[in-house]
Fold this sequence. Notes:
This protein has 334 residues and is an alpha/beta fold. Helices cover 39% and strands 14% of the residues. Helix 3 runs antiparallel to helix 4 (140-154). The longest helix has 61 residues, at 2-62. The termini are far apart. Residues 106-201 form the T2SS protein K first SAM-like domain.
Amino acid sequence: MRADHSRGAVLLFVLALVALLASLAVTTIRTAQVEVFAAYGGIYAKQARATAESGLLAAAAVLLPARPADSDNLTQDWAFFPDLANYPGASFLDGHISGRIEDESGKFPVNAMHPGLSNHAAYQAVFLRLLTGEALALPEDRAKALLAALVDWLDADDQPGAGGAEDAAYAAAQFPYHVRNNSLDTLGELLLIQGFSRDLLHGRGDRAGLMSLLTVWGSGLINVNTAPLPVLAALPSGLNAAQAAALARSLDAYRRDPVRQSELASLEWLAKAAGSHNGQWPTTLLATRSLYYAVTLEGRSGAATARLFAVLKRDQPRQSGKPPSCTVLYRELR
């Protein structure tokens, strides 16, 4: 009887030991799985970042064609990046990269409205037409107030213009601050200026926002071959908002036609494409070539993503026979 009891105790002990070892094995496996998943997460994060970085190199390569074109326009490879059949790094990036290249020289140069610069009045007139055009559709009185506040933010004096704002207006804010009295470094600074709202900057619903239409980069000239439709519509004077928007759509179809690419080297294509609906173009503000491009990329690997934003300047060599190059003016990994 005692022998049976001893054997039963031993059996219970063995069963308890097996259960304990099984529990430890399960815990160890779970811990190992967590460590493996964490390791994979780190690998995926690094691969996503490497993909975004390689995408920037590929974008720079696309902006440097083997044979320089006579103009920069929306029929060229950079405008379709990265949805191209062949481009440098395609075998590595295929299915893992998304984003776009935007021509900053086609956007409206907000700092060109600084009163100390030549042609500032012409740029201010274009900006008013941009605000009151079909895309943004602001009332004229609000548009004029925004322009006045922006000019006061840019100019060096402390005398507010009609409807504008200088230090006295901003001193009354909950957190007082001074007017910059200089050019903008980023478009985000517009939120500090009286009257500018997030909806106006970033858009709402289908309505465009100023962030996609303005730039702080570039020489000040606007490339009509790549300008966003609202900017293109704001350039000619002598038209109402509906006429300007219709003209811009017509011009956009013309400039996207690959057959017309050779015509885009000269501003003469504007009159040819517009026909009898042409307005008065501020030709001293316009160009058909570009130097500054913004690159927005998202690299993906597994569940990890890495976002990269950069501004590139395409440098033209002074000596003939040397290829152009790209300089990174700004780069931010998000």
